[in-house]
Specification:
With 672 residues, this protein is an alpha/beta fold. It is 53% helix and 22% strand. It contains 18 helices and 20 strands. Strands 1, 2, 3, 4, 5, 6, 7, 8 and 9 form a 9-stranded mixed sheet that branches. It has a 6-stranded mixed sheet with strand order 18-17-16-15-20-19. Strands 12-11-10-13-14 form a 5-stranded mixed sheet. The longest helix is centred in the C-terminal third of the chain and has 99 residues. It starts with a strand and ends with a helix.
């Protein structure tokens, strides 16, 4: 049996606002006392009732939105007197449903009636939120400023955000919940992810959970409606109070809506650009209650699924998306002209759904005609579409009419028809007999299960000691295996270090042997001319003043590293390929010779290279002589250039003075 808790509330007074609270727990009423709004919200959060029933939400006043936001997931606020504009008094509703009433001015009596009516499925749920939720996945804390560690941490957080987004996406797909996703990529991960999920908060329970305080934060934000909505607690209540219709929807930038009744007649056609979901909901609600929401494409868009869920209506999806020719043919059979393609698509979807249901609806109408219930045809058809069989639907309709008919009979009638009571007694007796048999069967099952439990407990006791010893052995073995793994890792690391040091030692010994013999000059080999390679040579074999370096590939080297070589005091530089021009200029200026390996016939094996001492010395001497001659020529050219510049400047100065003397002589003559 499902245990249901309902709280009925009614306002006692204002300033501060106080409420009378009565609970209904599976048929048992209990007066809970007087609560302020704050205490009432805390009480509801602690008890988590299925329904909070009130006769009119206007009694909450300006606190209505705050109250709705504070309700825990799964708790509904129900206005038992009906939707706005169609409300009835609590007393008339109680009389209709066979509930005894008391003092109508007692808040506790009003709260009790609200709880009892809600327990019978009477009332409208107050909808404050759309069936749409925003889920934001972001980093949980700031990365901090600068540095390698912050960069690594930032990349790690972005990877965690990406993993959480993928996890939520996978869960939503497995749960078959429609959604849209926007992401912002960063550092090969995601800086943020935002889901727009077309489902209510209750549908997401257990699928998406909020997260706070860690590296990743997940926030769930239900979307509030611009205006409150009202949905009946039971689908058949909506069928009884409002016209039942079939709605076709074409979503997109321009939304198309088509409404037809259960006889196939077109009731409304509408299309509007950028029409929000709330407006679509209100437009349809003003016309009637949809028992079927249809689309012309397969699979159904999330927008259409959301509207169907909001109205608790069946969703019609064609086996395959309707072609344009098929839509036009459906409209020709209806003889209806539409304003645009969106209305056409919506009407084709609605009419296609009607044609699918038409044989069943015609069968229902024929049976109702035979039973004389044709005036209730729409109501029965709607219940059949919702899943009731024809007999159940007819019983529900006739049962609804019975209280009103009994109420309309004059009270002074002398005869009382006891047949309904006799039938009810027989039904209850049969129900009791069935429950007694079921009770006995369940008792037998319980006895058998108890015997099974006792047998299993004895087996557990027998094996308990053996299992305990086995667990201890496994734990000890696991600890030893982990210790062995750690030692093996340390051994591998030590071997790697020994191997590297051995290679370095062999290189140093080879170079020392060559130096001792004196017939050749050992060269210190660099694979490339870079800072990292220079650090490696200094670390492995050292770099001293007067060393000769051999570079395999000097491409890409710049002026700074050439200046570093000059500062280190190397004697010469030999390369396999030509040096870059900036390096050549720096070495030439510092008079540090540089050659190619072809010029000196370098002998090289792997990381070891030598050159004949005599050849190297001769090449260095010739190059330095050539550079000295070039320097002298350059100095002479510079001196001659200075003399020539001085001569030209002197001629210009003498010419200027001569012109000034001539000008002075002219002025003197003119004065005389």
């Amino acid at each position: 049996m499902v245990l249901i808790l309902i709280l009925g509330i009614d306002v006692i007074g204002e300033n501060p606002k106080r409420f009378a609270v009565v609970s209904w727990y599976n048929g048992r009423l209990e007066r809970k006392g007087e609560f302020t709004l704050y205490r009432l919200i805390r009480f509801i959060r602690a008890k988590r009732p299925e329904i909070v029933a009130i006769d009119s939400v206007t009694e909450l006043g300006d606190d209505l939105r705050k109250f709705l936001r504070a309700l825990p997931p799964g708790t509904k606020l129900v206005q038992v007197t009906g939707r706005p504009g169609e409300q009835r008094s609590l007393q008339s509703l109680a009389k209709e449903h066979g509930i005894t009433t008391g003092d109508r001015f007692d808040p506790y009596e009003e709260a009790k009636l609200s709880a009892l009516l809600a327990s019978k499925g009477v009332g409208y749920e107050v909808l404050a939120f759309e069936d749409e939720v925003i889920v934001k996945v972001t980093r949980g804390r700031s990365h901090g400023k600068g540095g390698w560690s912050q960069d690594r941490y930032r990349k790690r957080v972005h990877n965690l955000v990406r993993d959480k987004v993928r996890e939520i996406e996978d869960r939503l797909r497995r749960a078959d919940i429609p959604f849209d996703l926007e992401t912002e990529e960063k550092d090969y991960g995601l800086a943020r992810g935002e889901f727009r999920i077309y489902a209510s908060r209750e549908e997401l329970a257990g699928i998406v959970r909020p997260m706070r305080g860690g590296d990743v934060e997940v926030r769930i934000q239900p979307i509030e409606r611009a205006e409150l909505g009202f949905a009946p607690l039971k689908g058949e209540e909506a069928v009884r109070e409002r016209r039942s219709v079939i709605v076709g929807i074409d979503p997109g930038i321009t939304v198309g809506i088509a409404v037809i009744d259960l006889n196939g007649n077109v009731v409304a056609l509408h299309s509007e650009r950028n029409m929000p979901v709330g407006e679509v909901f209100r437009f349809i609600s003003e016309i009637g209650h949809p028992v079927v929401v249809a689309t012309d494409v397969s699979p159904a868009p999330g927008f259409v699924e959301k509207i169907a869920r909001s109205f608790k209506a069946n969703l019609f999806v064609p086996r395959e998306s309707l072609r344009v020719e098929e839509k036009n043919e459906l409209l020709r059979s209806l003889g209806i002209k539409v304003d645009d393609d969106h209305q056409r698509d919506a009407l084709a979807a609605a009419y296609k759904a009607y044609l699918r249901l038409k044989p069943k609806l015609e069968h229902v109408e024929a049976k109702l005609r035979e039973a004389g219930l044709l005036r209730k045809a729409d109501e029965v058809k709607a219940l059949v579409i919702q899943g009731y069989n024809l007999g159940e639907a007819m019983q529900k309709v006739t049962r609804r009419e019975r209280p009103a008919e009994e109420a309309s009979e004059p009270e002074g009638g002398e005869s009382v028809d006891v047949r309904p009571y006799v039938r009810k007694i027989r039904e209850l007796e049969e129900r009791i007999a069935f429950l007694e048999r079921e009770n006995e069967e369940l008792r037998g099952i319980i006895r058998e299960q108890r015997r099974t439990i006792e047998r299993l407990e004895r087996k557990i006791a027998d094996y308990d000691e053996e299992v305990r010893k086995k667990v201890l052995r496994e734990r000890e073995l696991e600890a030893k295996v982990k210790r062995i793994e750690i030692l093996e890792k340390q051994l591998r690391e030590a071997k790697a270090v020994i191997e590297r040091l051995s290679r370095d030692l062999v290189k140093v010994k080879r170079m020392n042997v060559v130096e001792v013999r004196g017939s050749a000059v050992p060269l210190k080999v660099l694979r490339v001319l870079s800072w990292r390679e220079l650090e490696r040579i200094e670390r492995e074999v050292g770099l001293r003043k007067g060393d000769v370096l051999f570079v395999v590939n000097p491409a890409g080297a710049g002026k700074a590293i050439a200046e570093e070589l000059v500062e280190k005091g190397i004697r010469a530089l030999i390369t396999e390929k030509p040096l870059p021009e900036p390096v050549r200029e720096v070495l030439r200026e510092a008079h540090i010779p540089f050659f190619t390996s072809e010029e000196l016939d370098v002998k090289r094996v792997d990381e070891f290279a030598v050159v004949e001492r005599e050849t190297l010395e001769k090449a260095i001497e010739e190059l330095l002589k050539r550079w000295a001659e070039e320097d002298r020529e350059r100095e002479a050219e510079k001196f001659l250039r200075l003399v020539e510049e001085y001569r030209i400047e002197r001629i210009r100065e003498l010419r200027r003075k001569a012109e000034e003397e001539l000008e002075a002589e002219k002025r003197k003559r003119q004065g005389l």
